[in-house]
Specification:
The chain is α/β, with parallel strands linked by helices and about 700 residues long. It has 20 helices and 27 strands. The two termini are about 40 Å apart.
Length: about 700
């Protein structure tokens, strides 16, 4: 193996992941409104990609050689490659959107524009416009404005061309921001003849342009949608006289004025109007200009109207109660006796809120410590913590103010907790606190007993309905003693602590994972069973990938489920001969991190908050925890095996990033998210599936997993 580690560029790999999201919108077996929702997810993902990644690459164009060290190729070349892929994906996006519109018509659902309204609907739209929309519009005449208005990130605009005299080429230009922050993007029109019609806010405004510009005499009026994306990087200034909260607050405000990194526009916009706008916003045709269709900001389509037709949406089962916690009056009593492993969204997240609520009123509970990265709006978690304070408990919340795009929300609930009397710690200097922990101290028979939560996802009851994550609830002293050390570190950053069981970044996680991979290499070389099952969101870190290549070369069988970015090159002779990677994109977002090592027959199991990325391993506070309970180990193995057997929503991650669906090797159809839901709800037993269809390279010792 050569010294240079073969890698797929992380940004191009991310675009390949977003292409898998677009595949869901294209898939005719997916319910129609869900397909529209995937268009919205694809669009929202791409917006964030431009705001963060493309903005970073653009900043490095001035330092091409340093940029090549960071990205693996010169920034300008990478930007050109991204541009080609994005434009190609946009064309596919438009075709899928048009196809979906045709399918909606078969369901008697029509998206109509301002020129397709019946007389009765015209009256309805005009009345709606004057009552609900017009009060929030701020039309700006661009010739008379003292300066060109600032175009906000995430906002959609209509840029308008008013021809007062077409022959004399007398034109006026105007700009209107769509007020989607106060008015829905969609207006459902009164039903007629069993038909449902929907008009977008863009077209409601277009229909009433005559009313808006009635003071002008003109021969023709045209309007086109434009949208700008801005650099979202926070500049946390070094003024030591200001608190971190003040710095983050100021930086969030400055983010809204970040440099433009992309302009998306209606491809039918006239050249004179496009050139006029480009000049005003200091962009040119060498910048990221993305021509598209009539509508932009498709992220709004994630909230497409339901219309009450059940066949157009997924039938999502209600999260089940965990069998160990079902009907129990005290969660503490259960955890005292055994560890509990929760799997979302299949299990109810309310078990977590119930535990914190119980702790808030339990007279034996002395304190609660928790890390908060992204909490829900009107968070039940935060409310339980406030209730605990009011009941005399000592509450400490480690709030990460630099959780990207959630900074303002985190500042708000941090203030709320402080006002109620909780101690709030604003992260750790130089580290993002991304661990998913809480620790409850309870006095029992004169001794302090600790109960801990360690997980893969945020304390957010809303995302827990959509994200596949795992949580462990435990009172095991081997674990809780180290969680105590970790919270001591958050309070006093000099007390880093020693961790024998937890893998804690940036202290020992990288080293321990490398050691465990090294052990598999030694076992393979000694002719012993050697394998790894790895599930993550992203695999980017070059050192970890190099070690995986070495393991593959030594004969270690490696199977991975990587939802998003995968910089490891599969199918590369001499490097990844023994590595298989799939990605699952389905109705829920795969988010849990699971690691299983053969360990010469004494398997080691971990769940973690961290992916294998440089930032997670070296610049964040993350935790991977061992799962000791044999029954819980079997649960995790079964979970992984069901996903590896997925032949409906699993894509093969190959070196060419073709995103081909995994072919069925048998008559059994496996859609892992549906089957895991049925399994955890006691409606399906996977023994036959696991033993019959597990991939040939899987060691024989794993074939008898029964849960």
């Amino acid at each position: 193996m050569s010294k240079k580690v073969p890698l797929i560029n992380r940004d191009l790999s991310w675009l390949s992941f977003n292409a898998r999201v677009l595949q869901e919108a294209e898939d005719t077996t997916v319910p129609l409104i869900e397909r529209i929702r995937f268009l919205g997810i694809f669009s929202n993902n791409r917006d964030e990609f431009f705001r963060v990644r493309v903005a970073t690459i653009r900043r490095m164009v001035k330092w091409p050689h340093k940029g090549k060290q960071m990205f693996g190729e010169f920034p300008n070349v990478l930007l050109e490659n991204i541009q080609k892929i994005v434009i190609r994906q946009q064309k596919k996006f438009e075709k899928i959107y048009e196809s979906i519109l045709g399918e909606l018509k078969k369901e008697n659902i029509f998206l109509v524009n301002e020129k397709q309204l019946s007389e009765s609907h015209q009256q309805y739209v005009r009345s709606y416009f004057h009552d609900q929309v017009y009060p929030f519009l701020v039309p700006i005449m661009l010739e008379s404005a003292p300066k060109f208005p600032y175009l906000k990130d995430k906002s959609t605009y209509l840029i308008i061309k008013i021809a007062q005299s077409i022959k004399e080429k007398k034109w006026k230009y105007a700009l209107i921001e769509l007020p989607t922050d106060v008015v829905s993007r969609f207006l459902v029109l009164p039903a007629t003849d069993h038909q449902r019609m929907i008009i977008l806010l863009d077209d409601v405004i277009r229909f009433c342009l005559d009313d808006i510009f009635s003071v002008f005499t003109y021969e023709k009026i045209e309007s086109y949608t434009v949208k700008i994306t801005r650099d979202a990087e926070l500049d946390i200034e070094g003024d030591i006289s200001k608190s971190l909260m003040e710095k983050v607050s100021k930086s969030v405000k400055m983010r809204k004025k970040g440099a433009p990194v992309r302009l998306a526009y209606d491809e039918k916009i006239p050249d004179d109007l496009l050139n006029f706008m480009l000049k005003k916003i200091n962009m040119d045709k060498s910048d990221y200009l993305i021509p598209g269709g009539r509508y932009h900001n498709f992220r709004d389509f994630m909230n497409f109207p339901d219309l009450g037709k059940k066949n157009l949406r997924y039938n999502i089962p209600h999260p089940a109660d965990h069998p160990d916690l079902m009907g129990q009056r005290s969660v503490f009593k259960v955890i005292r006796q055994k560890d509990v492993l929760l799997a979302y969204p299949y299990h109810s997240f309310h078990h977590i809120i119930d535990l914190l609520r119980e702790a808030s009123i339990d007279p034996k509970v002395e304190s609660i410590k928790i890390t908060l990265y992204r909490a829900a709006i009107n968070s039940g978690i935060v409310n339980a913590l406030i209730n605990a304070v009011k009941n005399g408990k000592q509450v400490t919340a480690v709030v990460e103010l630099q959780a990207r795009f959630d900074e303002e929300a985190n500042i708000a609930f941090a203030n709320k907790l402080q006002e109620e009397g909780a101690q709030v710690i604003f992260g750790v200097p130089g580290l993002k606190v991304h661990s998913k922990l809480f620790l409850i101290a309870r006095k029992e028979e004169g001794k302090t007993v600790h109960y801990a939560h360690l997980g893969t996802g945020n304390f957010n009851e809303q995302t827990a309905k959509l994200y596949c994550d795992h949580s462990l609830l435990t009172s095991d002293k081997k674990i809780t003693e180290e969680v105590v050390k970790l919270f001591s570190f958050y309070r006093d950053n000099f007390k880093t602590g020693m961790y024998k069981r937890l893998l804690v970044s940036p202290f020992n996680m990288r080293k321990k994972f490398l050691q465990m991979i090294g052990d598999e290499i030694k076992n393979a070389e000694a002719g012993k069973p050697a394998y790894m099952y790895i599930k993550m969101n992203s695999l980017v870190d070059a050192e970890m990938i190099k070690k995986l290549y070495q393991a593959s070369e030594a004969g270690v069988k490696i199977k991975m489920i990587i939802r998003g970015i995968c910089s490891l090159v599969t199918e590369l002779k001499g490097y990844s001969d023994n590595i298989e990677v799939i990605s699952i994109v389905d109705k829920f977002l795969e988010h849990s991190r699971i690691f299983i090592f053969a360990n010469n027959g004494d398997e080691r199991y971990f769940i973690s908050s961290a992916d294998w990325m440089y930032r997670n391993l070296d610049h964040r506070s993350e935790v991977a925890l061992p799962i000791y309970d044999k029954d819980l180990q079997k649960q995790l193995m079964t979970y992984i095996q069901i996903q590896l057997n997925d032949n409906n929503k699993a894509r093969i991650v190959d070196k060419e990033q073709k995103n081909e669906y995994k072919k069925r090797s048998s008559a059994a159809s496996v859609r892992s998210q549906d089957d895991i839901s049925r399994w955890l709800n006691g409606k399906w037993k996977p023994e036959k599936l696991v033993s019959a269809t597990i991939v040939e390279k899987t060691p024989a010792t794993l074939l008898n997993i029964v849960v």
